[in-house]
Design a protein that fits this description.
It is a single chain. This protein is α+β, with helices and mostly antiparallel strands. It folds into 2 domains: 4-38, no CATH class; 43-173, Nucleoside Triphosphate Pyrophosphohydrolase (Alpha-Beta Complex). Helix content is 19%, strand content 43%. The chain is elongated.
């Protein structure tokens, strides 16, 4: 059943995030204000895979959750940038590796009951080293991780970032990584 939207009131707005109260009505039920987080920028992530090296991952700390974990290179798209171009740029900027040909894995909404955030996930076939990462504060280290270790990191809870966990498990489940 499709809910009816009667209006939206912005509570907070910035270049990064907007919080709104949306007046919605559930068919044959009730009407209420639903909190919605709107994010103006989509994001792209890239599983950079090389058959001989493994998967290119970043070991990083996330201050919001105060956690460490392995992540794929990812970030917000710039205005007017395609998801593929943004994923390629983010991989290069964060790792210093220029990804090879990109293949779309999937596009999804990680928490569609609360936010309109959209992630685009790609698989890169190989990469060429082009220099140091543009911002060394993005991660503590960058490593090519063998596939068996990627599986172990997922199993052992060392991949907790939702975008990265989705990208890696999707690529493994569909046979894109072998």
């Amino acid at each position: 059943m499709r809910w009816t939207v009667h209006g939206e009131q912005v509570i907070y707005d910035s270049d990064w995030v907007r919080l709104s109260l949306v007046d919605v009505e559930v068919p044959d039920s009730h009407r209420f204000d639903h909190h919605v987080v709107r994010l103006p920028r989509h994001a792209a992530g890239v599983v950079v895979h090389d058959p001989d090296r493994g998967v290119l991952l970043l070991w990083r700390h996330r201050f919001i959750t105060d956690t460490w974990g392995w992540e794929v290179p990812a970030g917000g798209l710039d205005e007017g940038e395609t998801p593929e171009a943004g994923g390629r740029r983010e991989a290069r900027e964060e790792t210093g590796w220029e990804p090879g040909p990109l293949e779309l894995l999937c596009t999804y909404h990680p928490s569609n009951g609360l936010t309109d955030q959209t992630f685009h996930l790609f698989l890169a076939h190989g990469a060429d080293h082009v220099g140091d990462p543009e911002d060394p504060s993005e991660s503590e280290r960058i490593e090519w991780v063998p596939l068996d270790d990627v599986r172990a990191h997922i199993r052992d809870g060392l991949v907790t970032d939702g975008l990265s966990l989705t990208a890696l498990t999707y690529a493994l489940a569909t046979g894109a990584l072998s």
